[in-house]
């Protein structure tokens, strides 16, 4: 039987293997990602055959999250955009689309200017529109991801992430949010006008852009701020002209009505809601307390990100960007599992630092665990993605401190 010294040596070697994680090499990550992509494809084929994704066994379409976007676009194309915020009318369009009634609801919460993006999809049948929307939005994300992490096989790593799979099966906005966020950060110092335009477009899901004005003001990036503001106003004006002021009135009414109540009640499923608010509600069962604690954490997160951007101003673009992506996700109380594509984006910014500057202790392992974390939301409920984003934010802060110390040496 091995003595204590032997076991101690084994434990030390194991800890060193996890700390340095040299076994997390590029070719192995690509191999893991390929296996994940093949598993997702198998799931998709089984889903279609067994009737739980895209089409039921009777040939009728399966209702998914994308039906909310498609139905709203159909109503807008018919000149009735304001009615998309009337859940009864919206549900009726969804029922007509799939040929039968169904339990639950897929509500339309987005601002009316998102309809400008969705109108082309309204011309297609529901399921083909769902697939094309996935292809287009995923393609845009992959283009941005390749710029963030310009290494061989980066696209495979992006597709193999669990959050990618969750976004595809739902037909949600995770890809577009990640693409627009990544483009804003990549272009901020090179092409500020394009960065501002990208940030203005991010208002299709406005809760993910709350942190950016603070960062732009704190760092004096007034050109990006101005263009983003103008782009937002133009989008609002064009959508009001196309769909009517009534659509915006209906949108604002919905924010104080059933949409807000759904957030307080946990949305469709507490396991899917991924935010500080959801975590605190699950722990306390008290809505106001949970929201108060969420706001306190959001302020703390914002302060940390500003610290990285301003007082750690020598931090590299990858570090600043990873902190901004993680902070943007953590600040909103209304984030779902399919929005976790931004976890992949934040991880990519940090992975770029690992590739160019070398890995810090535990960094490789923690980045991989953060990317994998959203897959556990069925078990860990609302804690999965906030834990992943907090991990990535902590890694960005450590990187910023190391870079500052190195630069000052």
Task: State the helix count.
Answer: 21
Helix-residue proportion? over 70%
Q: Count the strands?
A: 0
Residue-averaged pLDDT: 91
- Reading the helices and strands in chain order gives HHHHHHHHHHHHHHHHHHHHH
Kindly report how far apart the N and C termini lie.
50 Å
Class inferred from helices and paired strands: mainly alpha
State the shape: globular
| Low-pLDDT residue spans | none
| Percent of residues in beta strands | under 5%
How does this structure look, described?
By secondary structure, this protein is an all-alpha fold. It has a domain at 265-409. Helices cover 71% and strands 0% of the residues. The chain has helices at residues 4-20, 26-50, 66-77, 87-98, 114-122, 126-148, 154-160, 162-170, 174-187, 192-201, 211-218, 222-243, 245-255, 258-264, 276-284, 287-311, 317-331, 341-357, 363-372, 377-380, 384-408. Helix 10 (192-201) crosses helix 12 (222-243) and helix 11 packs parallel to helix 16 (287-311). The chain is globular. The model has no long low-confidence stretch (mean pLDDT 91).
């Amino acid at each position: 039987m091995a003595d204590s010294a032997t076991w101690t040596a084994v434990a030390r070697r194991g800890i060193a293997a996890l700390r340095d994680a040299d076994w997390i090499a590029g070719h192995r990550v690509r191999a893991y990602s390929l296996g994940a992509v093949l598993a997702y494809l198998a799931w998709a084929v089984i889903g279609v055959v067994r009737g739980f994704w895209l089409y039921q066994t009777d040939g009728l379409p399966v209702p998914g999250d994308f039906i909310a976007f498609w139905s709203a676009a159909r109503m807008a194309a018919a000149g009735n955009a304001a009615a998309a915020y009337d859940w009864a009318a919206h549900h009726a369009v969804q029922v007509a689309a799939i040929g039968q009634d169904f339990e639950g609801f897929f509500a339309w919460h987005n601002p009316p200017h998102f309809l400008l993006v969705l109108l082309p999809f309204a011309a297609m049948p529901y399921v083909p529109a769902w697939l094309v929307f996935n292809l287009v939005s995923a393609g845009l994300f992959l283009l941005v991801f390749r710029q963030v992490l310009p290494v061989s096989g980066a696209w495979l790593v992006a597709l193999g992430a669990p959050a990618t799979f969750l976004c595809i099966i739902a037909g949600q906005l995770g890809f577009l949010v990640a693409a627009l966020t990544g483009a804003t950060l990549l272009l901020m110092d090179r092409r500020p006008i394009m960065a501002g335009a990208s940030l203005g477009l991010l208002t299709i899901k406005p809760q993910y852009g709350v942190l950016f004005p603070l960062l732009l003001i704190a760092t004096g990036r007034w050109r990006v701020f101005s263009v983003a503001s103008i782009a937002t106003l133009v989008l609002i004006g064009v959508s009001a002209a196309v769909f009517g002021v009534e659509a915006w009135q209906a949108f604002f009414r919905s924010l104080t009505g059933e949409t807000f109540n759904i957030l307080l009640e946990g949305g469709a499923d507490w396991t899917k809601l991924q935010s500080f608010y959801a975590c605190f509600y699950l722990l306390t069962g008290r809505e106001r307390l949970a929201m108060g604690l969420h706001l306190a954490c959001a302020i703390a997160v914002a302060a940390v990100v500003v610290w990285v951007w301003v007082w750690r101003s020598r931090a590299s673009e990858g570090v600043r960007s990873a902190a901004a992506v993680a902070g943007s996700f953590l600040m909103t109380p209304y984030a779902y599992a399919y929005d976790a594509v931004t976890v992949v984006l934040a991880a990519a910014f940090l992975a770029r630092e690992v590739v160019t500057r070398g890995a810090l202790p535990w960094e490789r392992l923690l980045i991989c665990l953060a990317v994998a974390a959203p897959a556990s939301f069925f078990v860990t409920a609302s804690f999965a993605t906030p834990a992943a984003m907090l991990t990535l934010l902590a890694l960005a802060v450590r990187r910023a401190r190391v870079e500052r110390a190195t630069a000052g040496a």
